[in-house]
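User: I'm preparing a small set of examples for a lab meeting where we compare how different chains pack in three dimensions. I only have the primary sequence for this one, and I'd like the structure in token form so I can line it up with the others. Please keep the answer compact; I'll paste it straight into my notes.
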Amino acid sequence: MKSFKFRIEYAIARLVLAVARRLGPLHASNCGGWLARLIGPLLPVSRIARSNIAAGLPGLPAAAREAVLRGMWDNLGRTVAELPHIAALRWEVAGTEHLAPIAAGGGPAIMVSGHLANWEVLPPALAALGIRMGSVYRAADNRAVDALVNACRAEAIAGAPLPLFPKGAAGARAALRFLAQGGVLGLLADQKLNDGIAVPLLGRLAMTAPAPAQLALRFGCPVVPGRVQRLGPCRFRVVVEPPLPLPAGPLAAGLDRQAAIQALTLAINDRLSAWIAERPAEWLWLHRRWPR
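Assistant: Understood. Below is the structure token output for the 292-residue chain.
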């Protein structure tokens, strides 16, 4: 039964990507946004998004929350439809001065971001600046679909594909080796981790992955916040911010390691909170981020 379901999923994914490829970047983005905006708010999963929006943006009136929901679906539909066209997307980068030391001297370094606008733009945008960033990602349960999506990611990069590390023990070990060898590791730090640490996000405690802070403290490497903003169909701005200050000499300052991890994770969530509050329709609200 499960294998039959996976075959159906794979067939649908191939069809969607084939149609998007045939339409071309602009028409695919517009059609994907229109279809998702039309159907998405009616799906049961939108109940999670509505609950999250009410929890994270409590000051918004009901009509504004619904506008955020429709905008989220529009952005998600565009992001999916743009997947086979990543190499053809257009972007500009603000804050390249914060990446210059990494481009010149390499890593180890960590880039933290979130599921904002079309987050798939980050790796090729950095590659164009001479920074080959590896990424930790959640692999699809359906391996065939996962391979299909990763093939689209690989098409966007000239030369050898960028390293991809699926979440899990094997991927974590590979990511550690990558950092130890001077790599630049990209982490989307905005999703819930049940066995993470409780840190505020948009003013509410949220179970958060401590891995970016743990790795930064272990390797003594910079944590650079960067996000993608959607400027229109297939058009984006990548905004790179100054590296977050690492807790300096945590033991000497009276902080234990766990307190240092908590402080750096809070700094990361503060950046995510600011980004989401500024452009809420571009964040993926579908993940159950806060406790009920």
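A couple of notes for your slides: Residues 2-282 form a domain with the Glycerol-3-phosphate (1)-acyltransferase fold (CATH 3.40.1130). The chain has a mean pLDDT of 90.

User: Perfect, thanks.
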